[in-house]
Amino acid sequence: GQLGCTAVTQALKYLTRVLDETLRMFPPVVTFTTRSAANDIEYDGLKYQAGTNFLSPTIQVHMDPRIWPEPEKFNPDRFLPENVAARPTIAYQPFGGGPRNSVWHSSKTSTQVKGWWKSSSSLWESLKRVV
């Protein structure tokens, strides 16, 4: 049968969630997020002065059960829009917290769409007739 736009859109959304969950569990690179304290802070009973540098390994954040319930379980629904909105943006950083992460977010869907177009010749032929 033929695929309609709605079915394709839903499939791509699910595929994106699967990719995100895979990268959460298995980040492709060993990355660390670094931050400096803007002010004096106290955390977990310890005091830190402004300017103190902090280093956080990505995998530790990705497997933190306070952020990701049952972190060892594969669950693409963690990336449903309502679940993404409920957690800090820094909680998911498969390529680190800098510009590489932004490149991933902006390119992943277009890459999926290009691959799908190439593999769907009947739809491609239909679209060429319309255009």
UniProtKB/TrEMBL annotation:
<dbReference type="Pfam" id="PF00067">
    <property type="entry name" value="p450"/>
</dbReference>
<comment type="similarity">
    <text>Belongs to the cytochrome P450 family.</text>
</comment>
<dbReference type="GO" id="GO:0005789">
    <property type="term" value="C:endoplasmic reticulum membrane"/>
</dbReference>
<dbReference type="GO" id="GO:0016705">
    <property type="term" value="F:oxidoreductase activity, acting on paired donors, with incorporation or reduction of molecular oxygen"/>
</dbReference>
<dbReference type="GO" id="GO:0020037">
    <property type="term" value="F:heme binding"/>
</dbReference>
<dbReference type="GO" id="GO:0005506">
    <property type="term" value="F:iron ion binding"/>
</dbReference>
<comment type="function">
    <text>May be involved in the metabolism of insect hormones and in the breakdown of synthetic insecticides.</text>
</comment>
<keyword id="KW-0408">Iron</keyword>
<keyword id="KW-0503">Monooxygenase</keyword>
<dbReference type="InterPro" id="IPR036396">
    <property type="entry name" value="Cyt_P450_sf"/>
</dbReference>
<dbReference type="GO" id="GO:0004497">
    <property type="term" value="F:monooxygenase activity"/>
</dbReference>
<keyword id="KW-0479">Metal-binding</keyword>
<keyword id="KW-0349">Heme</keyword>
<protein>
    <recommendedName>
        <fullName>Cytochrome P450</fullName>
    </recommendedName>
</protein>
<dbReference type="InterPro" id="IPR050196">
    <property type="entry name" value="Cytochrome_P450_Monoox"/>
</dbReference>
<dbReference type="InterPro" id="IPR001128">
    <property type="entry name" value="Cyt_P450"/>
</dbReference>
<dbReference type="InterPro" id="IPR002403">
    <property type="entry name" value="Cyt_P450_E_grp-IV"/>
</dbReference>
<keyword id="KW-0560">Oxidoreductase</keyword>
